[in-house]
Amino acid sequence: PANAWILYRSARTHEFKAREGCPAVPQADISKVIGQLWRDETPEVRRFWEGEAQRAKARHRQLYPG
After folding, report:
1. Residue 57: which H helix or E strand, with range?
2. Pick from 3, 7, 14: which is nearest to 57 by CA?
3. pTM attached to this predicted model
4. Please, are residues 13 and 61 in contact by the beta-carbon 8 Å criterion?
5. Which are the contacts of 8, defined by CB distance < 8 A and separation ≥ 6?
6. How far is Cα 34 from Cα 16, in angstroms, rounded to an integer?
7. pLDDT digits (tens, 9 = 90+) for 31-51
8. Are 16 and 61 in contact (CB under 8 A)?
9. For this protein, what is any one GO molecular function term (predicted)?
10. Collapsing DSSP states into helix, strand and coil, what is residue 31?
11. Which residues contact 33 (CB under 8 A, 6 or more apart)?
């Protein structure tokens, strides 16, 4: 299952592409921008994404026990 960073990056990538209107931006450039956003996020936002990651992990455990 995806960790907090991956979930955050995925959500922000969709926002970034919609806002910029340019899906041709290289993923490496998008990752750099979103990486800086992640580093600048508040502890509350990081906790939210950590919770999302825990829920994804629990769903994965239910779907694929053992």
Report:
1. helix 43-63
2. 3
3. 0.85
4. no
5. 34, 38, 41, 49
6. 9
7. 999 999 999 999 999 999 999
8. no
9. RNA polymerase II cis-regulatory region sequence-specific DNA binding
10. helix
11. 16
